Amino acid sequence: MTAEHGGAPYLKRMKITSFGAFANKVVGPFTPHLNVVFGENEAGKSTLASFAGGVLFGWEEARGVRNTYKPRNADRAGSLFFAPRPEEGDSLQGENADASAAASASEPGVLASGSVSESENELVLSRVRNADGLQGPVELVDDIDRETFQTMFSLTADELRSLRNTTDMTAKLLTAGSGTGASPAHALAEVQDRLAEYTSKAAGIEHSIARLTAEQDDLRAQMAAAADETERYKAQDKEFHELAPQRAQLLARLDALNASIEELAAQRASLEKLDAQRDQLRRQRDSLREDEAALAAEHRVREQTSDPALVALGAADERALRDRIDALAEEQAKCAHSVDLAKENCSTSTAAYEALLETEDVHQVHEGRRRQRSVQVGLSIALPLVFVAAGVPLFMHGREITSLSFTALGIGLVVFSLMLAAAALVMLFRPDKAAEALEVRKQDAQWVMLQDKKKLEACLSAQEQLAARIRSQLDAVGLSAAQGSLRSARSLLAEAKDARAETGLFQQRQQALASRLSSVEDNLADVERQRARAVERAGLRDGASVEDVDAAIEQRTRQRVGLLETSESLNRRYGELKQELSQAKHAHRFDELKLRYQQVRTRQDESAQDYARLLLAKRMLEAAIAAWESKSQPEVYRQASRLLSLMTDGRWVKVVMTPEGRLQVMDAVKTEREPVHLSLGTCQQLYLALRIALLMTADNVGRSVPILADDILVNFDARRRIGAALALAELSRTRQVILFTCHEEIVESMRSVDPALNVVEL
């Protein structure tokens, strides 16, 4: 628990006797810090928020079709239970007790119907009919009215779209939160009423100056005695009022110096950022120029290794040239095939001929034939001789013995031998057909071999002629580097095509580098312009550095220190005069002693002095209110600026009020906008930040009244919702905050910024 709470009670429970759809229902407990009432649609969250405002400031009257939550058969009635805020050491114990009470209820966070018990130290505010008024310790809400509650304490998504009577509401809250026992604004109204009584001529007002003027003749002498005292007071009052403009002037100069220092600090940060961007852009520019030069050098090297004529070929010319090369390649392939075939045929015929001429085989054939003929000759000679040798003796022996059989046999053998000799002679001189066939084969093989050799020579000659023709044609079309090789010609064409592609790629890369370089140079020029504007806004010479801004900040800081010393001196004298004049208000005991002798004189003097005191009090209150507003209102907008920056993640950083009384916001790059030009979510964040800042600045106004927020975060994105949750958590450190929602993600966002979040479920 922080000291800012001041020990003011906080709302602990709501008891709804009858209101809308609720009857005899108790909701709570709530903690003095951050609370979330979570329930589905139509669970009664808006009903609870309207119920709390109705109890405090009266039920709404039925107007048009507006829902006033009036039950059909009963009057609206209910109570709010306020408990003293626990001390810092007792905070945990009190919150644990509240959590235990919530856990023991029939529903999580909602007490069972009629199950509330009043402790001795609880304060109860209740209302039945508006005519009966608020019952209980009404001093809890004495310092705010219904309009202030609805504008500042009861927040809805629609309410966050504007802040009606911004200036009046700010003055009302700030003067009410000045730290006095009663609001200076209320005190000023009372002083004015009393001043009206002193100038009134109505009967029954005994201290009326108008009535006492009739007795001034009797009191003239006594008034002369008090003239010196009055003059002294007048002189002091004059000096007192002359100090007020001087103090205001000093404050204005201090504000101007503060604004100038803030502006210089902002421009210093901008210059640092712009200098870093400028250095980076310059490095990028130099790098791009180096890349451009390197690319051009590389392209020149590649151009030197490529044939310009081939690189300059068009697509149609290249296709025609490739077609001619393909045709020549096809012709070359055919010619090579013919040569290969001729070589193969020649090799085959030569091998066949050489096979017939192999020496070992011919000798073997001839030797076999020679042995066969020798055998034949030998047999053709030997056998007839044998038969003759056998037949002649046998014939002779038969003649000798006159044996017919032997003689016939001898003759037969001789005849047979003659027949064998004749047969041998026939076989001996008969031609050899196998030898003749072999010779014919040898001649045929030789003829075929000679034909194949001639054909091979013709094919080789044709191949040489084709090679010469190919080389001449390639030389004619600029492919002399191929030296008659179609493969080399194709390679050259491919290299030329690659060179053209590389040329195109070079042009694209060159254009890309030129575009990037142009963009970098444009950005660099833009950064230079922004830097010049920043230097101009800082009020420095062109080309000023960050060190120059630091020197200017230091100079203005010294000026501010001097003004602060002068302001403190004036404030001391102002306080002395204020104390003397305050004492003068009560310096009437001596007059009372004198007025005992002369009642009329006493009444006249008292009336005159009271009137003078009231006039002085009026002026003092007016000056005090003006001084308080001039001191507190900047704090409000400073807090609002900080909270808006927190909610928008640094997108909008400042909230100001123009001299014409119009609200404006400024983003991180000093762009000013009016609320009407903001998006719905940003507009709601602006007015939420302004309300939280007002409530935090005037933290002793409505200290016991909770902040009721009905689904005010629904139009915020996830990141800005976290910022708003942080702002509400910060507000909950000085005031009780109750957020109504039906979105689980909002509950998780609130719990992420406040782990001690109290969740009441409907």
> Which stretches of 5+ consecutive residues score pLDDT under 50?
1-5, 91-97, 99-115, 176-182
What is the terminal separation in angstroms? 27 Å
Q: Given the C-alpha coordinates, what overall shape results? A: elongated
Strand order of the largest sheet: 6-10-11-3-12
Strand tally, please?
A: 12
Properties at a glance:
66% helix; 762 residues; four-stranded antiparallel β-sheet; alpha/beta; disordered N terminus; five-stranded parallel β-sheet
Tell me what you see in this structure.
The protein is an alpha/beta fold and 762 residues long. Among the domains are: 211-304 and 527-585; 318-358 and 374-428 and 436-481, no CATH class. The chain has 20 helices and 12 strands. It has a 5-stranded parallel beta sheet with strand order 6-10-11-3-12, sandwiched between helices. The protein has a 4-stranded antiparallel beta sheet with strand order 2-1-4-5, with helices on one face. A 3-stranded antiparallel beta sheet has the order 7-8-9.
SSE blueprint:
Layout: E1 10-19, E2 22-27, E3 34-38, H1 45-57, E4 77-83, H2 91-103, E5 123-127, H3 146-153, E6 154-156, H4 166-176, H5 184-199, H6 209-212, H7 216-225, H8 227-304, H9 308-311, H10 315-356, H11 359-401, H12 404-429, H13 433-476, H14 486-537, H15 546-586, H16 589-595, H17 599-647, E7 652-657, E8 663-667, E9 672-673, H18 680-697, E10 707-710, H19 718-732, E11 737-741, H20 744-753, E12 758-761
Parallel strand pairs: 3-11, 3-12, 6-10, 10-11
Antiparallel strand pairs: 1-2, 1-4, 4-5, 7-8, 8-9
Helix pairs in contact: 4-17, 5-17, 7-17, 8-14, 8-15, 8-17, 10-13, 10-14, 11-12, 15-17, 16-17, 17-18, 18-19, 19-20
